[in-house]
Amino acid sequence: MRYFPVIVVGGGLAGLRAAIEVNMHNIQVCVLSRVHPVRSHSLAAQGGINGALGNHARGVYDSPEKHAFDTVKGSDYLGDQDAIIRMCNDAPLRIYEMEHWGCPFSRTSEGKIAQRPFGGAGFPRTAYAEDKTGHVLLHTLYEQIVKFEHSSERADIVVLDEMLVTSLVVDDGRCVGVVALNLKSGQFEAFQSDAVIFATGGSGRIYSNSTNALISTALGIYIPFREGAPLKDMEFIQFHPTTLIGTNILMTEGCRGEGGFLLNNKGERFLANYEDSKNAMEVAPRDIVARNIQREIDAGRGFENSYVHLDIRHLGEKRINERLPGIRELCIKFANIDPVVDPIPVQPGQHYTMGGIDTDINGASEIKGLYAAGECACVSVHGANRLGGNSLLETIVYGAIAGRSCAEYVSSLSKTKIGTEIIEARLRDEERRAKEIVSKDGDYIICDVRDKLAQVMAQKVGLFRSESQLKSALEDIQEAREKFAKVKFNSKSKSLSYNYEFINYLETEANICISEVVVRGAIERRESRGSHFRIDYPKRDDAQFLKHTIARYSKGEISLSYKPVKIVKWEPKERKY
Amino acid sequence: MDKVIFEVFRFIPEENKSPYFERFEVPYTKGMTVLQGLLYIQSKLDGSLGCRFACRAGICGSCAMHINGVYRLACETQISLLGEIVRVRPLGHLPIIKDLVVDMTEFWNKYKQIKPYLIHSSSLPEREFLQSVDDREKLTKIVDCILCGACYAACPVVGTHKDYIGPHAFTKANRFIRDSRDNGTLERLRIVGGEDGIFRCHTVFSCQEVCPKDIDPSGSISELKMLTTRLAFTSFDKSKIKV
Q1: Is A301 one of the catalytic residues?
Q2: Which of A100, A414, A479, B207 is the most exposed place for a label (fewest CB within 10 A)?
Q3: Cβ(B41)–Cβ(A492) under 8 Å?
């Protein structure tokens, strides 16, 4: 059994940033990732990363405080204000740090980091690298990992890729290690560790219409949830207004930030016809724009009853090539249209999981030694609706914070390397469970159960929710659970090496459980706030629901409770743009 | 077209004596990509089919493979452009772990050889390093590399000289050499100009042809050859090397 003082699960931006931070404290750290780090979904982020740098001509009066206020308001006052203020204060520092490490940001004419307008932001504060910001940030962090992998100045950073963590081991309330499936060998391996940082990304694939990578399933948060770590605010799911028809591939908010229009089938900029978007128009926050697009489609003013047009033609070929080259490439390859000459067919699609593993402002969960950062965590800085450009920011700010507090925790421990027997026992449990799974011979195909459930989530737990639809979704989840108990394993080879049917099994189990958490939270939240819109309760209700939903798992049962929102500076007001 | 035939390379070194192609019939839907076809096989016909994937949008670089004669990304290759038979094989030059999954260890190790990170000499500014729009323009395209391995698999020199560093790593080296903030040009030129370096390139443009991001590794190799040559002739005064 291998031992590392700290294990990071997940090799995306939050995970790599956390690992670098732990390593800066001269503590050996191991990153376990189901894919090679540069394959992580962080790289699909396009538009940019927010920080009050004041580099844009119209941004000179911007400040971290204004950034924080925009974020609080964007969150529909559900975000914890202390966490948001901390993130916005750290933003310039972390963005400059990425630049110093080599991140190739686009530039202003003065040679500074270029910034563009984004939804819900009072100033143009979204720093970008064309429309490939996530890609360049992820490669930059991986380059820093390579630089310090075997540096003489610090302890080692070990990256073990294609290691799928399947289980977290907790001994007497303290996190002591993980069990992972080595995809190359097909064997389970046990890892002992004094602390674990989860950075496994979002759970987007519980929805069929997601922009997320195929690997962004609920497995990452299900593992700690099953061991007793509570989840927070899971009913808040962001639907991105503009995803490419058919594949739901993301069409960045930058398209609108750069001046693109949303048009209905009459060629009107229909956002002008809605009270909540008539002022900010295309750069209103995502929840508002997504709902108004759906309303337009439902009223018969869309195209083929399923999409509207995102028109960037008037920006001209030169500007599109300069600012949005990736969007042009995606449209040509996946929709066979060129946005220089055609409008882009777009519809809202699942995009981001605002909720996640409940952590404090230092990234620590309720379980001793278990930390979380990035999309899988909920600090919470996004509350009921995340602003574009704040997710990349959260990964590097809270990745660093979780790394630091984890390093301090590990340094303070008097007893390390504990729980050997319980970890070994868990390893044997996992091996036994795998044998049972591969010999399953029921009636249903695993992927069918998974896909059917994902469609239910998209249809009944989407932009517009109601008690009857949500309760019906709950019944569908129960049906999925029953079918899941009777699946068959149809792989010809039973080896677990790159056996995706086996991985699908684990993911489907997780998706069923986490879907239920989302739906249960949504049923109980009888109000409309941010991304969570109830047609039967269309108003925000601060008296009853200005609070975080907390879900716990114990002996197969999910229970809900609530905890207060941290309001330290701005009293909730009506959210108007 | 309502169905398409997939001929998929299968090989599990521990279980099979030799590789073989297995035929699968996959129902075709409009807009279907090669990756979607492979995922159909994985979910409905044989869950043990090994292949890598993640983003399904041409940006993560997981699913480069040999598709109807060309190295390309499965996720962004439309079946309608290929016809009724899709024949897929894994990336060349790399040991096979299972079916379409290859062991990329040597690919990553070679990438690491060229010091793939910014090396700056000056002390750090309080804010960002300033970089002109023109200097940033030199990085456009070249920073798009997704390290998918298509160029590496297509390169004939990689196939004949085991230690050849490879087009992906040379492109990365050039990305940093072109960067106005970087100060590691000499160290990197010494590495890429060495025994296993750029001078082994036959300039047949295979890497350039297959690159899914149109990055032109061949162009980078030519640039590096020029710089290395200039370095050789001005070695008595390194300050004369202009990048």
Answers
A1: no
A2: A414
A3: no
What do you get for the CA distance between the two ends of chain A, in Å?
Answer: 56
The H or E element that residue A457 is part of is helix A446-460
CA distance readout (Å), A255 to A43, A251, A261, A278: 18, 7, 8, 18
- Substitution target in A46, A53, A139 with the highest count of B β-carbons within 10 Å is A139
Q: What is the pLDDT of residues A84-120, one digit of tens each?
A: 999 999 999 999 999 999 999 999 999 999 999 999 9
Q: State which residue of chain A sits closest to B133, comparing Cα positions.
A: A107
List the single residue in A111, A130, A445 with the smallest CB-CB distance to B43: A445
Q: Where do the CATH 1.10.1060.10 domains begin and end in chain B?
A: 105-240
Q: Which amino acid is at A530?
A: G
Look at residue A329 and tell me if it is in a domain: yes
Q: Active-site residue A256, yes or no? A: yes
List, for residues A40-53, the tens digit of each pLDDT value: 999 999 999 999 99
Contacts (Cβ under 8 Å, ≥6 apart) of A378: A231, A232, A233, A354, A355, A356, A357, A358, A359
Residue B240 has pLDDT above 60, yes or no: no
CATH number of the domain residue A339 falls in: 3.90.700.10
Q: What domain range includes position A248? A: 242-348
Q: Could you tell me the CATH number of the domain that includes residue A508?
A: 1.20.58.100
Distance CA A566, CA A27 (A): 33
Backbone phi, then psi, for A188, in 5-degree steps? Answer: -80, 145
- CA atoms of A470 and A480, how far apart (whole Å): 15
Contact A546, A572 (CB under 8 A): yes
Closest CA to A25 of A417, A413, A414, A408: A408
What does the H/E/C string look like for A97-145? HHHHCCCCCCECCCCCECEECCCCCCCCCEECCCCCHHHHHHHHHHHHH
Query: What residue in A sits closest to B96 (Cα-Cα)?
Result: A184
Residue appearing with tokens 């948001």: A84
ipTM of the predicted structure?
A: 0.96
Q: Which CATH number fits domain B105-240: 1.10.1060.10, 3.10.690.10, 2.60.120.260, 3.30.750.24?
A: 1.10.1060.10
Contact B40, B33 (CB under 8 A): no
Tens of pLDDT along A25-41? Answer: 999 999 999 999 999 99
Q: Same domain for A319 and A436?
A: no
A446 and A536 assigned to the same domain:
yes
Residue A505 lies in a domain: yes
Please choose, from the candidates B58, B92, B54, the residue with its C-alpha nearest in 3D space to the C-alpha of residue B73.
B58
Positions of CATH 3.10.20.30 in chain B: 3-102
Q: How many helices and strands in chain A, by DSSP H and E?
A: 15, 23
**Cis? peptide before A151, omega within 30° of 0:** no
What's the DSSP call for residue B28? -
SS3 assignment, position A277: coil
* One domain, residues A343 and A432: no
What is the domain count for chain A?
2
Establish if A501 touches chain B: CB-CB under 8 angstroms: yes
Nearest to A136 among B12, B128, B143 (CB): B143
CATH number of the B3-102 domain: 3.10.20.30
